[in-house]
Amino acid sequence: MTFATIDADRPLRGVVAGAGFIGGHWAPELLAHPGTELVGWVDVAEERARAAARELGLDDLPVSSSLTAVLDGEEPDFLVNCTVPQAHHEVTVTALRRGVSVLSEKPMAVTLEQARSMVRAADDARRLFAVNQNRRFMPGLVAFRRTVAELGPLGLMTSEFFMPYRGPAFLDTLEHPLVQDMAIHLFDAARAVSGADPVSVYCESFQAPWTWYPGACSAAAIFEMTGGLRYTFTGSWSAPGRPTSWTGNWRAAGARGTACWDGDGDPTADAAKGHVVRPHKQEPDPYPGRNRYTGLAEGLEEFVTGLRTGRPPQGECHDNIRSVAMVTAALESVRTGARVPIVV
Questions:
Q1: Are 108 and 120 in contact (CB under 8 A)?
Q2: Which CATH superfamily is domain 135-287+324-341 in?
């Protein structure tokens, strides 16, 4: 993939779309990064964006409920898409068609067809479009990925996610809230850790008898991955005790041994006879002392570096669409009761 880079000797001009929870975390990152400046904020409720800007002392920041007005008026280099998932396609494509690169929150889109059209729009515009999967930058996950790399060819990887979560009201509108909203974090992490891509999936999504969700908030899936790896996912958002971490519990088995990670601490490893496997430790926070949402500063740095050098960041759209496809294929398997091939 190729995209236009920016050589101008000035900070990159950024606009945030969406002034909800995550938008309120992204705006300070644009202010803190030495290579970016925040030049506008958009929200369907203009007063919400205005109030969010005031909280940061940005009384004069251009705000609007009109995305096109801010894009045309401020001429940004990039947009950070923090809108609700249902709006991701429209907001992203609108920006790309105006020559504005996009860094988006997950998921890229709610359907694979939408995701494909967004990738085409990025290609047509020759602009960088990436999705920030913030967990890829978590020190524990990075350490686990490095440990797993010492295992040699992988045969099996498992993740378990159990959380008694009572989330925002929109989750009650979803038929399969765990798979539709949360699972992409773990599916994308499985790709990041293993270096493998999905081939097919069989998935079941169901309601536990005690659940408080109207939809099916528990699921089990088995993915065939490239290289013959099998990745299994089991989880519930109505866990009746002993919750995992928000990153899940992980285990990977390869030719040289097994590695485990509880989602919080350092990973552990046991080597097979005749082999040595070195468990890696988490590296220190590169931004100590800052009150921040994990993975945003790191994702912004990779994105800015990409715009300057042409080096694709993690989550670049041609790659991230494979994580989207894992979700959409899992949902298709739930619907059909069959194993579904994953075709991007």
A1: no
A2: Dihydrodipicolinate Reductase; domain 2 (3.30.360.10)
